[in-house]
Amino acid sequence: MKKFVVLSLIALLVLAFGTTAFAQAKKEEPKLEFKASGFIDTRLMLHRNISLGTGNIYTFWDAPYLPDKPGVAAANKGAWDRTVSIWDQRGRLKFDAIMGKTLSGTFFFEIDSISWGEQPDGTRNTAGRWDADRAALEVKNLYLDFAVPGIPIPVSMRIGIQPHAIRPHILTYSDGPGITAGIMVDPVRIGLQYFKAFEGKGATADDIDVYALTANAKVGALTVGGYGLYWNANTYPIRGAGPLAYGVSDTYSADMWWLGVHADGKMGPVMLNFDFVYNTGEVDRRVNTAALKDIKYRGFATKLKLDFPWEKFNFGGTFMYATGADMRKARADGLSGNTPYGANFPAKKVGSYVVPPASAQCGIAQDSLIMYGTWSPNIGMWPTAGNNYANFTRGGYGGTWFAKASASFKATPWYKVTVDALYIGDTTKKGNTLGNAVKANGLPKDDSTIGWELNLINDIQIYKNLNWKIGLGMLFASDALDQWSGVGVVNGSPKNPWLIESQIVYSF
Fold this sequence. Notes:
By secondary structure, the chain is mostly beta strands. The protein is about 5% helix and about 50% strand. The protein has an 18-stranded antiparallel β-barrel. A two-stranded antiparallel sheet has the order 2-3. Strands 16-17 form a two-stranded antiparallel ribbon.
């Protein structure tokens, strides 16, 4: 199976170019046309007890949030319960070189400032450093698209650095080198994907290959579909440094599957979006030591979103549930070693729902302002940078569930207001997903409620292509967000996280 997608893609090319496909009636050659698109945004955020993509509610950059309790060093109290203000900015520029309806090439660039006035003298994400002139231009995509000639059914190919996207709001979106094909067998559209996630030594089986098969079809007013995604990782986690020497193996390898079904469309007056995805697989030890064990992964997530539009109103409801780990059987990073319960409880199974390495699912979901927030600030569901780009992580959903009610009113052609209310629960067993408070015996506490979140969002259309959004959010925190101070069994409860966000976006 793991070679099926690549062989299928090669077969399509052979069929196309090994025939007399080009013996068609001569037509006038299409002219080259250039198109540009993208956006520029700028955002101001004021918030308390909210992470900036670090994977822990109690972390802001390198300063941890720790309770303001006796025995906790002042230097370690960090941003605990303090108000943070920050500006950030992002720009994307996409160029398409188009030759008629059958051929195009795409260059897609991104420029980020994650905090105006950045101090690290790096490149990526530091465009906002004073005096500017940073080498902060990122290549996001570089690919060509073409229609395959000489085949009786429509087939399109994309080759190069491109989006790897399968139901991004719940599973995965990332960018990487690969080959994809779209095949239309009316009424079914089939997708084949092959990506190379890692390549070390060319003559060593240390690479990571990604394969996927997708299909969807129109059934009445609904589009229904399913998919299978497979990660064959001879190196795991993905190495951040260079390849190992010949004859030297990484500590682990991994095989992981994601199997899902989905439906989108109308059911009477209601708009419906439904997803169910199950992950299964194993991380295997490649170094034979007693301290290392094979780790099984078994988890799932499901989400149902309903919207009922009525005149200038829209009423909605969303339910999401994603399994959490049993902390007696799993470490936070999903690898071998002792769990928080000690040497008598070695890690052996991750029951949490997980997403592939480098998935931006967490930032794409945007179910609320705080807990399930935008690409930069949220309550802490972003995995740490090291884990996110190297490991299977819980993404934005694993270990949590929520029920959400929302209503919006388009008061004028240029102004819309939305209110959201969410109840958010914790599905991790024998421990908590976000908090790490301990009981009197030093073992993790197990709480079921993360809290209630309320949001007010104002959308103002200044011009056709210029939008201003102002959001206010408050999370009424419960026990599952409590944090251990690092001193004895002293825990702390954060003040309720809140966020005020102002974002202006020019799209073109």
